Amino acid sequence: MSSITEALDIQLARLRTRYARTPLPRFFAWWGRELVALLPVRWRALLAERTDALLIEARGRELVLWRQSGERSAELGRIGLDGPAETQKAEFARLRSGLDDPDLRRFYCIGADRALHRAIVLPAAAEDNLRQVLAFEMDRQTPFKADQVYYDYRVASRTAAERNLHVELIVVPRAQLDAELVTLAACAAPLDGVDCWRAGSGSQRAGLNLLSAERRFKRKNLRLRLNLLLAGAAMVLLVTCMLLSLSNRESALAAMSTEVEKAQNDAKQVAALRKTLTDTIESANFLSRKKRETPLMVALLNDLTERLPDDTYLERLNVDDKNKIELQGLSDDASKLIGLLQKSEVLTNPSVQGTIQPDPRTKKDRFNINLEFRQIADAAAAKVKSGPSGEHAGGKPGGGKNAPGS
After folding, report:
1. What is the dihedral of CA 251, 255, 260, 266, to 10 degrees?
2. Are residue 309 and residue 214 in the same domain, yes or no?
3. Which of 39, 61, 142, 161 has the fewest CB atoms inside 10 Å of its own CB, making it the most exposed?
């Protein structure tokens, strides 16, 4: 467990070091001072209570208790060291009970002249494990070894250009302090640390802690526990909100999917009804449309009778399923038939297939001509021009007398 704690302390020290090398600490310190200066005096006093401490000083054969509040210190009382230990403990408890917060941090303060101060320049890389580095350097910088002193340090400045670290080392011999701590333990509660007076007895503590970590009073950090509890509650609330948000989104998505599926089913039913209606209309109009689109054979025969001369007769008249017309027959002058058929209002696109050959038996020209119904050809041209959805154009069949078959 101790190795885990030491490793955690090393990592925290490295993080603090990296943070200290950034401009953020100076900015936040300036910003905090500016914000505090804007607060009322009473609020500033409440904020200053965070530095409150119970300071203990040995003066002759008595202990003097000081109450540090913000930047001021007030004497609470004195405890004689010549009386019994029980009397000293009772007097210390009485003085503590008179405080508004009896559980204040307790520091034993000594004069600054009793400590050895040394200014040391170290490489900046040593800041990650500065306490261990100072312990290794103790016998070189002071007349003592690391296990013979209580020590603490301050980082005076950092020189970024030279990559150096200016450190103030404060050292107190253990032999001097241990006897006082034993006497103090007989009447007072365990100490949170040992510090020096900043400017003489009763002023303020310097902000050091010379006492080794294993001898400091192990306090239960209720604020940390409360913060952890609040952080855990915040995380639980955050996860709960996220889960509720996801649940609400899933519910909304399910409801929307149901509505979309219902709308799709309605659309499919409407499309099916529309198709059924279209099929029904097309079925009802099929015969009339077929009749309207199919040319009359009577009109074809009537037009051919009017166009073909009397010296021409047909041997074959064929109309296929695509309404293409094929004429085969004999004529005295077959070459003029194309011109005559081009004037037809029923037929169009006359063309001679093959060559016109004389018939040796009848002495006439044998021909083979292909034609189309004008009505169907015009409708097909209009459909190609307007697109696949174009309607077939209707045509009026030409009138005339009925012609007998040739």
Report:
1. 160
2. no
3. 161
Closest CA to 122 of 87, 79, 157, 166: 166
- Is residue 133 domain-resident? yes
- The answer to whether residues 71 and 52 touch, using CB atoms and an 8 Å cutoff, is no
Residue 13 domain flag = no
**Band of the pLDDT at 19, cuts 50, 70, 90?**
confident
Domain carrying residue 133? 39-219
Q: What is the pLDDT of residues 237-295, one digit of tens each?
A: 999 999 999 999 999 999 999 999 999 999 999 999 999 998 888 888 877 777 766 66
Whole-angstrom Cα distance, residue 239 to residue 44?
37
- Rounded to whole angstroms, how far apart are CA atoms 258 and 171? 78
- Tens-place pLDDT, residues 81-118: 887 878 888 888 888 887 877 778 889 898 888 889 88
Is the domain of 207 the same as that of 81? yes
Phi, psi of 84 (to 5 degrees): -65, 155
Closest CA to 56 of 218, 174, 211: 211
Is 29 part of a structural domain of the chain?
A: no
Chain length of the chain = 406
Amino acid identity of residue 372, one-letter, is E
How many other CB atoms are there within 10 angstroms of residue 310's CB atom?
6
Of 205, 137, 196, give the one whose Cα is nearest residue 165: 137
For the segment 128-154, the average pLDDT, to the nearest whole number, is 88
Of the candidates 300, 347, 356, the residue with the CA atom closest to the CA atom of residue 329 = 356
Number of domains in the chain: 3
- The amino acid sitting at 357 is Q
